[in-house]
Amino acid sequence: MLGLFWSFLLQNSSTNKVNDKLAWTLFASSFLLSLFFILFTFVPLGFSARTDNVTGFAWSPGYGFTSFNSCHCNSSTDPGCSLYGQCYDEWPDPPYSYAPYGLNVDFGNKEISGWAWSNSVGYICFGRSCQGHYTNPPPVIPGNISEVKATYDDRGKVWGWAKIVSFKNDLGWLSLRGEIGTATGGKTGEYGLNFSTSTLNIWGLAWSGLTEPTYNLPFRLTNIDNAWGYGWFCVDDNTVGAGSGGLGLCPNMAVKVTVPYLQTVDGDIYVRNNLTSMTLPSGGNYNATYLILAGGDVVNFISEEKYKPSDIKSYIATSYPLLFDLPKSSRNYFNIFGKLDVPGLSQLENNQYGSYVDLSANTGLSGTFSGGGKRYIVDKSYSGSFILGEGGSLTLTGGSATFIIKGDLYINNNVYYDNAPVSSLSSLPSFAFIVEGDLFIDPSVTEVAGNYVVLGDPAEPACPTSDSAAATGCGTIYTGKTADNSLVVNGILMGRQIFLQRSYSDIDNTPSEKVLYDGRLLLNTPPGFKDLSASLPLFSEARP
């Protein structure tokens, strides 16, 4: 239709000079309309937005703002946002022809991918996300890599490419690092984007043009014969290169990256050896409500109490003199917190905990399970396994219960406490699982209720040195390797070692693993946990 319309105008303009100006005016209008059509009907697929971990804006002196995440982008109040700038789960039904967009930093492979949005030029892809959205590969510019990806190195320098999809061929490539030239061809420094893994900020300059950038080049397309392209893509212009200082091309707008982190709420963190993380929690969050104590170093873990007035000098202690170890058979199941009565719980008949229920023939539990104040024995001879949420989610109800699982425990689906009102504390669901093996949480699991003490095989085999090594039954907790889901545990986690495998992060700074100490161990203590529960925090305590 547009092709026929343009042909008609050109034929008439060749025979009528009066119509010539009108024809080219209409041609220009048609071009703008077609550009609008391209920008606003192209919708890349597979956007996540909320779990893309970059927020903020970039700036072009010629084209204005570019938004890095639609979830934090309201088109009625923020610059550079698409008309329906929303997260995928907030779309109206049926959805409009606009997609949520977001940029993501992958800490594992040090790559940047995803999409940004500019009201002026439309979608901008980064790195591998550009596959299938260009015909010609990016031009080779000195100092840059030609492979279509975007990465950052150990110095925090970002290398590679982004692409303005609506710009054709070479004109749309954004070089994320290169050299700055002068009118005489000399080099004055290096431009590029930067990413700090300590402050979690992104800043610097990228360039899109058919020549090397110089300080005096025009900033946007001026005419077709001298097409410089998009020009500078400016992100929080703090610095350009060594000694060159900022060019002042954009406002100071913090562009932040969120990171995976562990958080315990209303509880403490105790570690036998070192406790380390690559970064501090983002967004001003904390790792523990109260104490963080370790036999070795504590790196990039913070307590919420650290920033509150208190008589206690520090809620974080390194090289703590007391040994934090699990109760185990060689110590008669004592540790510094008290005794866990595994021998009494394991005695099948005639003990203080009454009768037991043998679930050794069962492969697992699903649906609804009532505790009834009892103890349950699952004897898999340390070589088998037991599954919570075997065929679907599991709801725990009917008072307290303690499970002795002689083997590995798997959690394959979500495990919940029944939230129905109770008439007495003895009816409050409060479950404990003593695991004489390893605990494996499936990556699809997002919520787990219960108190898990993972002691390992009483023979005390050596533990694996990484989560990719074969499990040994030493008492290891595996939280489930995934970047797609966070995990919430309503209770406590205790293990000989814990592999925090979740790399989930989102723009709301949701913890990748979150342990909520809910106090049920005190309100309705499961059998065998009376001594151990006495050392846990009380809800009435302002500090431990």
What features would you describe in this structure?
The strands form eight sheets. Strands 2, 3, 4, 5, 6, 7, 8 and 9 form an eight-stranded antiparallel β-sheet that branches. The protein starts with a helix and ends in an 11-residue tail after the last helix. It has four domains: 2-38, no CATH class; 45-257, no CATH class; 260-324, no CATH class; 344-533, no CATH class. The longest helix has 25 residues, at 17-41. With 544 residues, the protein is mainly beta.
Which tags fit this structure?
4 domains, disordered C terminus, eight-stranded parallel sheet, mainly beta, single chain, 544 residues
* Number of separate domains: 4
Counted by DSSP, the helix tally is: 5
CA-based gyration radius: 30 Å
Distance between the termini: 74 Å
**Low-confidence runs of at least 5 consecutive residues:** 1-43, 88-97, 216-226, 239-245, 309-313, 537-544
> Based on helices, strands and strand pairing, what is the structural class?
mainly beta
Largest sheet: 8 strands, antiparallel
Report helical residue fraction: under 10%
Shape assignment: elongated
Query: How much of the sequence is in beta strands?
Result: 25-35%
DSSP E strands, number: 38
How would you state the average pLDDT, rounded? 75
Topology (SSEs and partners):
Layout (H helix, E strand, L loop, with lengths): L1 H12 L3 H25 L12 E2 L1 E4 L3 E4 L35 E4 L4 E8 L3 E5 L23 E3 L5 E7 L8 E3 L1 E5 L5 E9 L5 E8 L22 E5 L19 E3 L4 E4 L3 E3 L3 E2 L15 E3 L3 E2 L16 E2 L16 E2 L2 E2 L2 H5 L9 E3 L5 E2 L1 E4 L3 E6 L5 E4 L5 E4 L2 E7 L1 E4 L3 E3 L12 E6 L3 E3 L5 E8 L21 E3 L8 E9 L1 E3 L13 E4 L3 H4 L6 H4 L11
Parallel strand pairs: 15-38, 16-18, 17-19, 18-20, 23-26, 24-27, 25-28, 26-29, 27-30, 28-31, 29-32, 30-33, 32-34, 33-35, 34-36, 35-37, 36-38
Antiparallel strand pairs: 1-14, 2-3, 3-5, 4-5, 5-6, 6-8, 7-8, 8-9, 10-11, 11-12, 12-13, 12-14, 21-22
Helix pairs in contact: 1-2
